[in-house]
Design a protein that fits this description.
heterodimer, A: 87 residues, mainly alpha, 3 helices, B: 601 residues, 5-stranded mixed beta sheet, 4-stranded antiparallel beta sheet, 9 helices, 11% helix
Chain lengths: 87, 601
């Protein structure tokens, strides 16, 4: 069988190249939807873990406290803009 | 489920809503219908009712917006955040906003209605195959008249079902030319244009002249948007795909995933991507406006997000064709408003001396003819481009088709009709873009359903009322604050009710009773006006309360029509028949639409 040709990946002009790191995506998401009081999380990782657990519990995801793929996929999923927590 | 702090809720049950603007992604009547169905989900399980109004006094104001759209909670472009809504209350509270950088559909790809052709107005099916090639957008391939068409099934080569796509070559919208198609080339400010343009406007809307010289005639209309081929994102958002286009030296006649590792479909917006590097994302399945609206209206009624992943009020979008409400949603909304009161059985009280039928007559409703039409499509694309097209797409709407689009549809299953009207001595029953009609003469067999769009292509899916003027045989169709007037196959409209002299207090026309000398009584709510067919104006002094002239009929009727010299006032599935003797109107019969008029078993 013909050897599968490697797909050519092209850089498309105008496409935002700088994608957020997973941690940045998580921090922004958790803040926007009411899981953390402030946009910045302390470096110790404790507050991120607590916020992740709240997010996972609130949306019936596996409660790992980790930024695992299930949690990241949930954060990338299209959704409603109303916060999950708070007013 | 969760409610908002303090169980925020409405303290009245007749909720009003205003659709403040529209997305270009879907036909307006599809958007109206999606919102109405989304509200109907909640009214089915609560005492709440939802009435459409046309001004900011509404409880729930619905709008489409992009990025920062005026409430301090900006949208974020394509995907991600789809929409948001505010809990019940005054002002912006209770409103629902939808991100118009999303592609709004019914969840299964762009909705492109078709015109003429042989598919009775059915929507395009993307992708479709034509001459072995796959198409994800309307095309002019196979035709030499440059008319855009699509197949309405997955395989044109097998099924040969097609229609023409929304195009400025077929019609224009709004403007001042009554929907006439563009004329190319046309002159504007001394320049010649051979395509739609947004020149001369600051809102970016594409328009064209409907005569060769705009500078002289000042006649114009807006060009229908090409949702099937308009790109989002990329560096050419809002522009159209150009097929075929060259990419890495290869030619593409449809959107492609080549060159990307995220699987998104894209296309070039010039014929050569390698040279111009202009591109954007092609339309995908889109997000179901009906499902997202049902979720947002849950917020607007007082529900917050739930933790139940299968429930409608779960924050993430999930397409489903199942009934969207989960038990959790119903428990939440009934916690706020209680259940829907059971309608007490109300057999119609009769004031007539005529004997009530003990059981509805057993004349059965004939099913639609099962024989398929023998002839092939009369117009539209045939063989390869060399063969050229047959029949111009300007062929007007054909006579009512002889085959129903869906034999399973049964007029006896319709609960409440949108409109009923006597047209050409036959009673027509309209519902959600379809209609049935009583055959001529005895037996009153029911024919149909037929697609409204096949007989009257310009009409929306939802109608409020219809009547035929007995003198001129003009047929007036009312939907919301718009009216269409058909004279044979030609149509005037849509025009606003203001043109007839009906002000904004008239949200819709719910019925009409023709009167002698070219007069017609037009009804709305609990009043009616006298309308002159010749001047096409109402006499503003003639406004009269219904119960003053028609004593004994219900005050909240959803349809009023004339049939065989008598007036029929419909409420739910019942009608009150009124006969006039010496200018005195009297209810002489109360019956069931389905049993007494349609003779359903």
């Amino acid at each position: 069988a013909p050897r599968r040709r490697q797909p050519t990946v092209v850089v498309f002009p105008g496409e935002p190249q700088t994608s957020l790191t997973n941690r940045q995506l998580a921090e922004e998401y958790l803040y926007r939807y009411g899981y953390t009081p402030g946009a910045e999380l302390s470096e110790d990782g404790q507050s991120l873990q607590r916020a992740l657990l709240r997010f996972q519990r609130r949306l019936s995801l596996p409660e790992t406290g980790e930024l695992d793929s299930t949690t990241l996929n949930a954060m990338r999923a299209p959704r409603c803009g109303v916060p999950d927590v708070g007013g | 489920f969760q409610t908002f702090e303090g169980d925020l809720k409405w303290h009245h049950h007749n909720i009003t809503y205003w659709i403040q603007n529209y997305s270009e992604d879907l036909p307006r009547d599809v958007i109206d219908d999606a919102f109405a169905r989304a509200f109907a989900l909640w009214s089915a399980v609560t005492p709440l009712t939802f009435t459409r109004v046309y001004g900011p006094e509404a409880d729930i104001v619905i709008q489409f917006g992009v990025r920062e759209h005026g409430d301090g909670y900006p949208f974020d472009g394509k995907n991600g955040l789809l929409a948001h809504a505010f809990p019940p209350g005054a002002g912006i509270q209770g409103d629902a906003h939808f991100d118009d950088e999303e592609l709004w559909s019914l969840g299964k790809g762009v909705v492109i209605p078709t015109y003429f052709g042989n598919a009775k107005g059915a929507a395009c099916h993307f992708p479709f195959t034509f001459q072995g090639r796959s198409y994800s957008a309307c095309t002019t391939d196979g035709r030499s008249d440059d008319m855009l068409w699509c197949s309405t099934t997955a395989d044109y080569d097998t099924d040969r079902q097609f229609g023409f796509c929304p195009s400025e070559r077929l019609y224009t919208q709004d403007g001042n030319a009554d929907g006439k198609p563009c004329v190319f080339p046309f002159t504007f400010q001394g320049r010649t244009y051979s395509a739609c343009t947004s020149d001369g406007r600051s809102d970016g809307y594409r328009w064209c002249a409907t005569t060769a010289n705009y500078d002289q005639d000042k006649l114009y209309g807006f060009c229908p948007s090409r949702v099937d081929a308009t790109v989002t994102g990329g560096n050419a958002a809002g522009e159209l795909c150009v097929f075929p286009f060259t990419f890495l030296g290869k030619e593409y006649s449809a959107c492609t995933r080549e060159g990307r590792n995220d699987g998104h479909l894209w296309c070039a917006t010039t014929s050569n991507f390698d040279k111009d590097k202009k591109w954007g994302f092609c339309p995908d399945q889109g997000y179901s406006l009906y499902l997202v609206a049902a979720h947002e209206f849950g917020h607007a009624l007082g529900l917050d997000h739930t933790s139940v992943p299968e429930a409608l009020m779960y924050p993430m979008y999930r397409f489903t064709e199942e009934h969207p409400l989960h038990r959790d949603d119903v428990q939440g909304i009934q916690h706020l408003y209680g259940p829907r009161p059971e309608p007490e059985p109300r057999p119609p009280t009769t004031t007539t001396t005529e004997p009530q039928p003990t059981a509805p007559p057993t004349v059965c409703v004939t099913g639609p003819p099962t024989a398929r039409p023998s002839e092939g499509p009369t117009t539209g694309p045939t063989g390869p481009p060399a063969a050229g097209p047959t029949g111009p797409p300007t062929a007007g709407p054909s006579a009512a088709p002889t085959e129903s689009p869906d034999p399973a549809e049964d007029v006896c299953n319709v609960d409440i009709f949108d409109a009923i009207a006597q047209i050409g001595n036959r009673l027509h029953f309209f519902k959600a873009g379809k209609y049935w009609r009583l055959s001529e003469g005895g037996g009153r067999r029911v024919q149909g359903p037929f697609l409204v769009k096949s007989t009257w292509p310009a009409l929306p899916r939802k109608l409020d009322s219809v009547f035929e003027d007995p003198l001129t045989k003009k047929i007036f169709f009312f939907s919301g604050r718009q009216v269409w007037v058909y004279t044979g196959a030609s149509v005037l409209g849509p025009r606003r009710l203001d043109k007839l002299g009906l002000g904004p207090e008239v949200a819709q026309v719910t019925g009409a009773l023709p009167r002698p000398e070219g007069k017609v009584l037009l009804f709305s709510g609990q009043s009616f006006w006298r309308f002159d067919v010749k001047t096409q104006k109402v006499d503003p002094q003639s406004v009269t309360p219904v119960d003053q002239t028609f004593p004994g009929v219900p005050i909240s009727t959803h349809d009023i029509f004339q049939y065989q010299e008598k007036a029929y006032f419909c409420q739910d599935n019942f009608y009150w028949r009124v006969s006039s003797r010496n200018e005195v109107n009297q209810v002489d019969y109360v019956g069931y639409v389905t049993f007494d008029l349609l003779k359903c078993p």
